[in-house]
Structure formats: structure tokens, C-alpha cells
């Protein structure tokens, strides 16, 4: 059984605010000026921030650390989260289409987590897959700039898809906070 003394020490790289991931001047999510104008630009800005946060929570870790599971019986890991979001991005494109769904990349249900193994090739593939699938979903949604437009066989509104994307990334960034702290003790916003 793990004792309190065996746990990772909590730490942050921030020097100005001890509860932050990085100092505000060094945080790439901070931008100068006003927030974007308009609903579409606003949701895209929030999504970009959560995507960046997820990648920040994974940076600096090796394959073993990224694939490290949280606590049994959970299969959740940072690598699993990256792979899961690859599958989720593909699935959102299915909502836009009337055709057959895109096949899963990592296999049957939950293989994105179950098969997240500590191999650098798997890590590299996950990052590459995520960038590719995000770009493909962004491009597909760019064809529908009217957030009220209803698409696909279920007639889902583009607004709902965009908000669901933010929700999905935000929820998993919360998981990533805890997973990262378990790996090396790093905490912060």
C-alpha cells in the first residue's frame, strides 16, 4: 500500500502564483486584448484553449509516464485521453454526415484507453492522429458557419456540436490535471 511519504510532491513551474501551471507571462493560452467578437469565434477560442491545455498537461513526459494508469480499476491515462479524443473528433464528423460512420482507429469500444501502451511509437502516433483528426473536424465544421444549421441524419445543430466539443475537452482537461499530478506531482490551472 502506498504511504503518504511515497506520494509525489506537489509542484508547479509558476513562480508568481503558486497555484498556476505557468506564470501568466509564459502561458501560451494568455493573449493580449479583448476576447473574440461573435459566437462562432468565441466557441472556437474556448476550444483552442482547452486543446492547448490538454497538450500542456502532457508535455515533458515520456511514453511510460503518458501511459501510466491512474488507479485500478480505471484504465485512464494521459495517452489514453489523447487517443480517446482522436476517436471523439472522428465521431463528431459522423454527426455531420448522412452516410456510414467513420471506423474507429483504435478498435472496439474503450480500446483507446485499454490499448494505450508505453511505447514511443504509440505516443507519436497519438499526437499525429489527434492533430490530423482535429484538423479534419475543424475543416468539416468550417463548411457550416451558421451555428443554427441542422445537419446529419439526426438534425443536430452545429452550435450543439461546437459546445459539446468544448465540454468534452474541458472535462478531459480536468482528468488530465489529476493524471498529471499522479505522474509527477505537477499541479496548476
From TrEMBL:
Residues in the signal sequence: none
Location of the region described as Disordered in the Swiss-Prot/TrEMBL record: 1-39
Comp. bias intervals (Polar residues): 1-15
Domain of life: Bacteria
Name of the protein: DinB family protein
InterPro entries: DinB/YfiT-like, MST-like
